[in-house]
Amino acid sequence: MNKLKLVGLVAATHTPFQADGSLNLAAVETQAGQLLQNNIHTVFIGGSTGENHSLALQERIELTQRWTEVVRGTTLKVVVHVGSNCLGDAQMLAEQASRLGVAAISALSPSYFKPRTLGALVEWCAAIAAIAPETPFYYYDIPTLTGAHFSMPDFLVQAADRLPTLAGIKFTNYDLMNYQLCLRVDEGAFDIPWGADEALLGALSLGAQGAIGTSYNFAAPLFHRLLHNFHHGKLDAARQEQFRVVQLIQILARYGLLGATKAVMKMLGVDVGPVRLPHVHPTAEQTAKLRGELEQLGFFDWIAADTPQPTFS
């Protein structure tokens, strides 16, 4: 297995639905094209942004199949989230992803019957990763959603011997102390892409090289400028871009973050449909109000402004 490092911005993509809530796989090509135009070259599909727990197993299989078809012949790489509360489903998704030649797979902790010990979590991940012995594996740490609270530096130490394909951790956690410790396990042997868009600058200052997030679908220019300014020592300018992101996410969160981000995608010409219950999509009136707030904020001007080529991608 080739060692993988996710460098630069990785878009955690939405799963596109029709107005009636059924899959709209035809929209994937539009999603991919928009990301490439915005210098995004890796996608993370079927994760939290992709409403993975709201998808049937067959839908997840079809989503992975479609993305791998669409990216063929492009520079886009695909990372597939295969996690599930059902180990057999996760293994089936891992086998498919591996067979299709994706760049990597990733999995959350189960969140209904949660692992009681770190060792149990490691064994769960090992049982998934073993099905794809040639595909890099990332554990997806997002304890606010899974309720699985374990030391990630300890996870890397324990999992290193049990998961030969362990590439690292998708770190969606604001714990910068443990983030630093993860970066230094085994002299930096593991890739730890950052997963909280609104705090990317803090992670960069500690050594982050890659980031996986929802906002890169619709606000990539802000983040490319943030990265460019950070890597060229222009910290005040980088802070300004990061604060713009914070203001943007504050507005989106008031309307229900996931539904609001899908509404923004449609405003930008990429219709990924509504969210599925239990998420709630903004009404037409709320969407109009959201657009007004974004215009007042300057969001549409920000993403239309000149953007440097990414420092890394």
Biggest beta sheet attributes: 7 strands, parallel
Supply the CATH class of the domain at 8-220. Alpha Beta
Rounded mean pLDDT score: 96
Which CATH architecture of the domain at 8-220 would you pick? Alpha-Beta Barrel
Low-confidence stretches: none
Give the C-alpha Rg: 19 Å
Q: How far apart, in Å, are the first and last alpha carbons?
A: 21 Å
- Globular, elongated, flat, extended or rod-shaped: what is the shape? globular
Helix content: 40-55%
The tally of beta strands, per DSSP, is 7
Side-by-side strand order of the widest sheet: 6-5-4-3-2-1-7
CATH superfamily of the domain at 8-220: Aldolase class I
Query: In sequence order, what are the helices and strands, one letter per element?
Result: EHEHEHEHEHHEHHEHHHHH
Structural class: alpha/beta
Counting copies of identical and different chains, the oligomeric state is single chain
Percent of residues in β-strands: 5-15%
Q: How many helix segments?
A: 13
CATH topology of the domain at 8-220: TIM Barrel
